[in-house]
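Protocol step 6 of 9: fold each sequence in the batch and record its structure tokens directly after the sequence line. For illustration, a two-sequence batch is reproduced in full.

Sequence one:
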Amino acid sequence: MKISPHFLTLCLAASVRSFAPTPAFTNWRSGVAPSDTVLYISSWGTKGSPARGDTTENKNPLANIQSYLKAPDSVEARNTIDGTVMVSGLVKTTERTDQFIFDLLNHEESAFEFDKIVAFVDDVKFAKKRLLSRSARYTGLLDKLDFVEAESAGGLPSKEQLAGIKSWVAYLEGDSMLADLEKVAATVKSVSGLENVAVLLAGAVELDAAASEAALKALKDAGVQYTVVAVGNLEDHDEGKIPYKYAEFGTENAILPADSIFSRDEALRMVTECLQLECGVNKAWAFSEVYEVNATEAKLIKGLREAGYARPQEIDHMMRDGPANYQKAIDEFQEANPDHAKGYYTTEAWWEDEEFQKSVKARSLREDAEIQKVEDDRTAEIEKIAKEWAKREYFRLSMEGSIEDGTSEEDFTKSNWDRALFEADLKYRQLNGEITDAGAEAALEDFKAQQERKKQTMLQRAKEELKDLLDEEDLGGDDLNEKLERLEADADNTEK
């Protein structure tokens, strides 16, 4: 059978689409998620989230963070990140190429659709040697890359140099960074057509909160969408290796200590992700690394990555929901389950409702009271029968002359009370159909055998005590053991 090329093409296209991953971003031009149905293969596997189980422990966000997280989904990107973007303040040292930020702005899986990426540098000839690499050629970066040289070393682009630029990523460092931030704001305000400005403040340690707030206010008043990312002293270690936390720039909580450090690549990642994400619009944050593995931020970031969140999705979640919401979920669970640490959990099941539990307890108490009443009535009836049996037995033995003189009915009852209770219990069960006559006879035989064994044990103990006593007083004689063996429990053992 021959297959037409057109049919084969359709099959291959369908096959590829079936296994396409869920896009990290919504259709940022329309603001609507793509309507085509695609198969998303979660990192959780075919069984889905490990929190799918309905046990209370699985619902504990502290023990199982996946019970708190939703499956990764598309995040909202800005709709103004196309046209031309300029990057300033980088590519000026032989220690590194600084190509990473250009790769991020050109990444095929990002939401950026820039047709030109301009490097604003101190020395164009030097910058070209650093950026015109083989990887830049393979990724298509060279097709978009352009260069503009600064009027003076370390200077900012002028109004004229920013003409036609739609987005500007500015890298600032040094003691004058806050003053430079205000210069950026003033320049931006004078440029028409510039819509986005993202500023990375590197080495932003021990900045005065009031001065930071003033510089930020100047940027706010510039009339463009801004993003500010402040970090500590930059070091060259892998991005994403160390968790992070953030605070609102310009506040006391955002002041970074002098020894604060941050990954260079992670800082570039943060400023570019905040440029493309809608959650980064008109936001300013100070980021710092988190070294405590049990910190809320560390647990949340680890959980996001285990759940299969891509970096844009992770950062969007951290910015929108953040550690505060995760901690709130933990607090709410602990409040609803105050004894969870002891292994006890509270659920929303109807049988754990307080009113239902009260009614169950009341019913249980009533049942216990009824059971106790039945047991009390039974005990009272058995004791009554026992007294009647003791009274009849005393009269019978008195008539036979088998009771020692001077023994009263009360003394007889006390000494034979166990037998009386046994006889009464048998009688009660016979009267109430709990035991047959044959069963009563067997029980009586068992009781008599038990009493006989008890009697023999007590006799042997008495013999031993008597022997010890006689030996101590030297009164036993040579035939003491023989005399003791002849003693019987019910006989008159007095020597004549």
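Sequence two, same batch, same settings:
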Amino acid sequence: MIVTFLRDFQTFWLKIEMSKEDPLETQELEDIYYAYHYITDELSYFGEKKQVGRFAFQLADLLFHTLFQHEVFASRMGSIVPSNSDGSTHRRTRSLSKTVITNYAPHLEKWIKRLGHFLSYFPDHRPYLLGLRELFERLQSTSTPTLITSQ
């Protein structure tokens, strides 16, 4: 389900760029956000079960790090974001127009808050959640969105 969600998220933004639609006027974005909301709730639920072990946290790491590497979050994250808890990085290649990124930037908060919501279920400092906590802090600390320019 996570991979399907990430594929749908990426495909949606590619279609937006090609069609020049306003992403805020599409039901598809709300459907994608609903799927994201559902997935984060499920990860929270399974993360609380001892029988699952770290599997739910590995899936959460995949979800959040991959999602927040998407260029629509570039205005929040800058041109390089950590890909995972080992500190490796990926450079962004931008294909979305500055207009799309600028217009949608104020609406990113609800996506970021879902990461905070997930982490709130695990207040103890588990070492395998450190990468997600750092990602959330970085997203929260970047309060003034700035656009990246293509090089």
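Proceed to step 7 once all outputs are recorded. Observation for sequence two: Residues 79-84, 89-93, 144-151 have pLDDT under 50 and may be disordered.
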